[in-house]
Amino acid sequence: MTPPTPLVQNAPPAPHHDGSPLHVSTQAPALGETVRVRLRVPESFGPLSWVGTRSNPNREPRFDEASVVGAADGWQWWQAAVEVENPVHGYRWLLVGADGRQHWLNQLGLSTVETRDHDDFRLVAHEPAPEWAASSVMYQVFPDRFAKSDVAPFDRLREQGELPGWAIAADWGDPVDPVYPGRSKQLFGGDLDGVREQLDHLASLGVDLLYLTPVFPARSNHRYDATTFDLVDPLLGGDEALVRLVEAAHARGIRVIGDLTSNHSGDAHEWFRAAQADAEAPEREFYFFHPSTGSGSTEGYESWLGVPSLPKFDWSSAELRRRFIEGPDSVVARFLGAPFHLDGWRIDVANMTGRLGSADLNESVRRTIRRTMLEAKPDTLLLGESTNDAASDFQGDAWHGAMTYTPFTRPLWSWLLEPGSPAGGGLGFALQRVPTFTGGDFHAAHARFAAGFPWRTRLATMNALDTHDTPRFATHARPGSLPAALGLAVTLPGIPVVWAGDEFGLTGVDGEASRTPMPWGSESSPEVAPVLETYRQLLRLRREHPVLATGGIRWLAVGDDAVAFVRESAEESVLVFAARSAATLEFEAASLAGADAAAPVYGQARLEASDSRVTLSADGPAFAVWSVGGVRAPRW
């Protein structure tokens, strides 16, 4: 099998386009609007007889010719006008040389053969994500394991012998039990007031977006098996604790999003219990019962991956939609409004929602959720979990971004983990093993899966080293690779994510083992302090360099052990170099104007620039950033 051809060192500058403001005149076009798009072509590319875009409106190709609108720093800028004829309007560039040869440019790069519509650039006329999304730094909290306040209900109920019958009580310093029933029933007693009391920690990291896994009552520590969506779990402090948390977070400039299970409820949910008790109950149509299943049966229904405690929703039910996702009285809308004021939702198992056999209502469900959010509180974020190739569902019609592992997490692990590392569960690696990648493989995999998303979807997609469902990155990371891993999460397009505890250097071989109670009080220890400082310094880059949120990206050089790219805007460019071991990368000076005057921002790697070449090097694992002048481009 022939592997994909990676970007290589010493390659000359190539024509470039992306969805950033340097290249697209508007980030949120209306249907029918004409958008100006620009292509940069290096002078070294040679003479061109025709340049323009090839769109595919209504599945019929259309070509729009471009003209030169300026030149600077060895680049020609070509501009074409593209009418947005469909809500998702794909286009690619065609460059015809003086010799008649064709070159096509799409999100995967330059090709001498015709390319697929699937990898086109896209203009999206659906409502965009809130402006704050792309600049966010996200922190994920699993409430039971994050922090326990002095008034935590757990302690009082435990003392009185009134904990729920399913709960297995644990002290904060106890080890996590990885075996069922402890795996899902062990309860440490973290609460939402405990989260509120640690908001200063989040602020010190530079976090401004808090993602809470479910807070509804359930019969497990993870709470993805909700028993109701009408209230916050009293074990977490109830509705009032969530109100206090959100108010305190907002006062610090931190937004808060919740977690909803649109694919299933718990088998103790009031709706499911009503459906089981009476075949004529309206809730019966909320779930997929087999035809032979009568009233009172505990078998004969569809569930998430065959887990009986998680019965699957049937979204053909209009009443289910009314109660859960549609209109001002729905669960989706209620927690966005007073008194809770959540700033959005992460939707669990979004990829499977509404899908079973021949039924596929996923598009209808996700669009309904987004419409309800726009009506209830327009400035909110909607993220969907889709752990594998998510592109087909994430074209901008509903989900603003993805919680996915294909564009970033799996390629990153494959490049920066020790060879032969086990994968544990949750990440979706084939056969539970992490393949070993070169830097070229990392770039190729990242580019391939990112190419399926519209640009603005990429900006709101989560760049997670790990999550509550996965092993922790640090468990099998190559020595010294943390700055490169976190640095790439911060500097590549997308929302950098910190899973609570990563900044303490915690490890875990699978998702359950990674749900370790936070070791508060260890922040100044020799083991934790350097890791914590690395997180603070790297996350700070997002605040100090806005180009990392919305700027374009050009890859400059890739080797087995290092990669380099630049994030670009008219105001500033940021050069990024990541290495897993001693490495040297080179690229032509014409690829990056101003490299000879680049100012160091982070890291200890070396930059040497001459009139013809730029060299980046490090003596071991490294992550480095330099600030370069903004791109000189024609004004719109």
Automatic annotation (TrEMBL):
Annotated region described as Disordered, given as residue ranges:
1-25
Q: Tell me which Gene Ontology terms the entry assigns under biological process.
A: carbohydrate metabolic process
* GO MF annotations, alphabetized: hydrolase activity, hydrolyzing O-glycosyl compounds
Keyword RNA-binding assigned: no
Protein name, as recorded: Alpha-glucosidase
Organism name? Agromyces cerinus subsp. cerinus
Respond yes or no to whether keyword Aminoacyl-tRNA synthetase is given for this record.
no
**Record-annotated Glycosyl hydrolase family 13 catalytic domain positions:** 140-542
Q: Which Pfam families match?
A: Alpha-amylase
Name the keywords, alphabetized. Answer: Glycosidase, Hydrolase
